[in-house]
Give the backbone structure.
Amino acid sequence: MTASPNNGNNNQRMHVLLIEDAPSDAEIEVAELRRGGFDVTADVVDTGDQVRAHLGKNSYDVILADYSLPNFRCMDTLDILREKNQTIPMILVTGALNSETAVECVKQGAVDYVLKDNLGRLVQCVRRALEDTRLRKERTRAQEQLALKVDELARSNCDLEQFAYVASHDLQEPLRMVAAYTQLLSERYRGKLDSAADRYIAYAVEGATRMQALLEDLLAFSRIGRNGVTPAPTDVNTAVEEVLRNLAFTLKEHSVTIICNPLPTILADRFQLVQLFQNLIGNAIKFRGKATPSIAISADKLGEEWVFSIVDNGIGIAAEHKEFIFKIFQRLHTRAEYPGNGVGLAICKKIVEQNGGRIWVDSELGRGSNFRFTFPAASADRASKKEEYELSPQNLVSR
Amino acid sequence: MMEPMEVDILLVEDNPDDLELTLHALRRERLANNIFAVRDGEEAVEFLFCTGRFQQRDFDHLPRLVLLDLKLPKLTGLEVLKRVKQDPRTKALPVVVLTSSKEERDLIASYNLGANSYIQKPVDFDRFREIVKSTGLYWMVINQRPMSNPAQARRAASQP
């Protein structure tokens, strides 16, 4: 038996499967739903075979099931739904139901129950069930989309990884061949070639060598963040000390004065932090002015972040170049003036941004530079809590 | 290349240009009399374990040094390295990885598998020659090996 739809209004359309053996009860339930503003079409069934057949060929918004049917255990509907991989909310609409049975039904997967002598609750109940289902479907869809994006990202990371690997191996080999064989040529034919030949050969070798250096730098840049970086609470003081040890020779060579204020502990990868400070301090020395280089390192907590500052008295940067210098392979000087490939600051920017920070420079040409970058401050607190958690006994056992 | 009875250095390199360069550098320094080259990982394994194309070879005549490229056809350099270092008969054989790349993961994988050294071939040929020279000098002259006779070394190693 099929109840006819109520046409001619803007009510919410709803297709209901009614599992009910009393036609009069079915009619009352449909009438109640219409009264509540639904444009209802309903199929009424009362055996397992019918339930299965209807669920197979129609799509329903909600199932209303009588708990006490002579020919069918209504809770079996849930098994049929699972079998068919359908998620349709089922509400029990029933005569007498003791509370234990009701709780048991809800536990098994019915969304709610309404007593037949209290049908006034039905509309509200159905509305909530529909809303819950809608939200659940939306969440599932969002999760699926997220999973898709994660997959996509993983694939593109994998491609990048593969690209870098191939570049590292396969692009360097031909370079070596060009350089090596031109060098061999120059040896074998020394004196048999004219004077320009040696110069040309030197250029070819220089070109290949520089290409290799560029390749290595490009790879170093692409490697940031893909070599399993593990941020941990890191004392920036010790990272800077390490940098100063690494640069000891240059610092001494140019009699550099370093003033280092107390620095905080932040959540970062130690190797990256060393790389970041080493590039910035190294630049401060490389681009020194006429005066003896002097570098001041400090950090201030501003709101939720630490702002680090590396001030030098070097040659400075013109305003129009302040953005440009952070781009990969961009340089403001010839190689003869200052060596390098223009990768250092690009690497700094990538490291800082990967950690959720920003980097910029305050400078005027000829008046020194103040390179500044931020790191989230809260993350370090969270990190120390995380560390405590990871060191709890049950975690130690599981490792 | 005819296979000599005693091989000083086994060179595993698939690229003929590269092979010629390395041979050139090695021969110039006169650090090894007999250098044998194989062109892929499979051939390297057959040579070292005296199987397949090299089943006539005597296992007691292991080379004194293997120079191993990583990117090889058929069997990668890492796979060759793994087999050499996992087999008690060849475990003590010095293997020097000599390759274009210094990808961190190759370095880590090579050392984890037991590589004795890892060298990136520089672009500059003069530097490459210096490196080949010092590598040859180190492994063929300076470095001490357990026993001169590998069979003897194996017997000694197998004693409890």
